[in-house]
Amino acid sequence: MSEVLLSVHKINKQFGPTTALRDVDFTLCRGEVHGLIGENGSGKSTLTSIIAGIRGADSGEMFKEGNPYKPASVVEAQNLGVAMIVQEMGTAPDILVAENIFLGKEKRYSRFGLVSKKALNKAAADALGKIGAGAIPAGAPTFKLNPEDRKLVELAKAMYEEPDVLIIDETTTALSNDGRKLLYNAVEKMQSEDKGVIFISHDLEELMSVCTIMTVLRDGDIIGTLTKDEFDESVIKSMMVGRELTGNYYRNDYDGVRGEEAVLRAEHLTGAEMVEDVSFELHAGEILGFGGLANGGIHELGRLLFGIDSAIVGSVTLADGTHIKDASTAVKNHMGYVSKNRDEEAIMLNASIRNNVVLPSLSKLVKGGLVAGGREKALTDKAICSLEVKCQSMEQLTRYLSGGNKQKVVFGKWLGNDSEILILDCPTRGVDVGVKQSMYRLMYDLKLSGCAIVLISEELAELIGMSDRLYILKNGKINGEFARSPELTEQDVIHAMI
Ligand SMILES: Nc1ncnc2c1ncn2[C@@H]1O[C@H](COP(=O)(O)OP(=O)(O)OP(=O)(O)O)[C@@H](O)[C@H]1O
Ligand SMILES: [Mg+2]
C-alpha cells in the first residue's frame, strides 16, 4: 500500500440551495495521478479549490501527510506544497508575466522594500524555462499572451514551487499539442518524484491514458474509485450519469444532403495571423468541419469568417453579396459565433443566464419597442432544458455556474435566434459526455432546418462524426478535403494534419 499524501474526510459545501459536495472522502497517495471525472456541476472544481485554499469547506477535515491541513489562502496552500492550475484564467491580465508567477511572493525579490524587476524577471524566465516554455517573455504584460501561453504561465508558477500535490483542472482543452506535451511532462516529473497529481478532464480517453487511478463524482457525491486495471469506458460513463448512455452519439446518416445554394463564400481569405489563401463555399443545411492542429489556423479562420479580425487579402461574402467586414455586419445578417475563448469573448460573466441567452435574439423579442418578458423567459427555459443547464434559476449570474454549464449557456444563446449561419469554435469544450450528445443532436436539428454550420474542432472523432464535409488546415492553408463517409477514419485525416 502506497503512502497517503493527502486525504479529505466528510467535506461538505453548500452554495445557497445547491449542495456542491456531500460528505466527500478522497485520498491521494504518493506516485498517483488521480483522475477526477463527473458531469458538469458534479463538484470537481469545488473539491479541488477547497484543497488548493481557494475557498473553505462548510465542514469536514483535511490531512496532509497525516497532519491537519486547512489552508486559509492559495499562497498558504502553496507554502504547504499544494498548487493548482484552475479551470478558468488563473492569471491577472494587467500585470507582467513575472509578477503573475510570483504574486504574493515578491518579497523574495526585494531589498529595502523595493522589488528588483531584474531579479523577478530572471526568476520568472527560469521558472518558464524549467517547464520548457522559455519562449514566453517573462517581462511582457500578461494580456498580450494568447490563452494557451497564459495557461503555461500558470503551470510554470505551480511547478516552480516544487509542490507535493499538483492539481490540474480541465486545462488540456486550452492547450495545443505542444502545450499538452509540456503539461504531461510536468505530470510525469511529479510521478517520477513520487509526488501526487489530481487531474480533471472530460476526455475519458485522456484520463485513461494519463491517470493511474480515477474517482467518479456525481451531484456532489463520490460514486467510486477505480484502479487502472478496472478502467472501462462504459463502466465509468454509467457511474458518471447513473444510467447507461444509449442511442447514437453522433449522427448516423451518410447521404450528405445539403442545400444547392451557397450561403457564404470565402475567397482567397488571408489573415494577419496564420490563415492563408483559404477559399470554400458553405451551403444551407450543411455542417462543414474544419480540423487541424490547434495552431494550424482553425481558430483564426473562425474569427475571420465572423468579421472579428479583418482579412488582409480576400473576402467573406453572403449569398446576397453582403461583405462581412466586421462582427456587427455578421450579427445583422443572421450569423452566430461561439468563441473558443469563452470567459473573455463569449459570455457576460456578471449578467444572468437569461440576459446572456436572449442577447442575440433581442430584436426578435421586441414588441412595440418593449421587450416581451414572457418570450424571454420561454426562450431561456428552452435553452436551460434542452441543454440541462445546472443552475439555481435563470436569474443566476453565469459567473457562478460550473465551467461546463457556462459553455452550455454560450451554445444556448444561438439556439433561439434563428441564425442562418453558425460559426462554432470548439462548442463542446469542457462539457460532459451526456450533454455533448444533446449538443450534437441540436446541431443536427439545426442542419435539418436549413442552418449552415461551420464546425471548428480539435477533436477528430467529433469532426468525422458530425461533418458533411471536412477541411483540414495545416500552417494556415487547406491541406485536405474529405467527404462524409462511413469509411473515413481518423488515420486518413491525420495524414493531412501533420
Ligand atoms: N461560487 C458559486 N456560487 C454558486 N454556486 C456555485 C459556485 N461555485 C460552484 N457552484 C455550483 O456548485 C456545483 C458544483 O460546481 P463545480 O464547479 O464544482 O462543478 P464541476 O464538476 O467542476 O463542473 P464542470 O465540469 O462543468 O467544470 C454546481 O452546481 C455549481 O453551479
Ligand atoms: Mg469545473
- What is the straight-line distance between the termini? 43 Å
Oligomer: single chain
> How helical, in percent, are the residues?
25-40%
Q: Give, in spatial order, the strands making up the sheet with the most strands.
A: 6-9-10-3-11-12
CATH topology of the largest domain: Rossmann fold
> So, CATH architecture of the largest domain?
3-Layer(aba) Sandwich
Overall geometry: globular
Given this structure, which CATH class of the largest domain is correct?
Alpha Beta
Main pleated sheet: 6 strands, mixed
Rg over CA atoms, rounded to whole Å, is: 23 Å
* Contiguous runs where pLDDT drops below 50 for at least 5 residues: none
Q: Would you tell me the structural class of the helices and strands?
A: alpha/beta
Bound molecules: adenosine-5'-triphosphate, magnesium ion
Which range does the strand content fall in?
25-35%
**Looking at this structure, what is the CATH superfamily of the largest domain?**
P-loop containing nucleotide triphosphate hydrolases
Question: Total number of helical segments?
Answer: 18
Q: Tell me the count of domains.
A: 2
Average residue pLDDT? 92
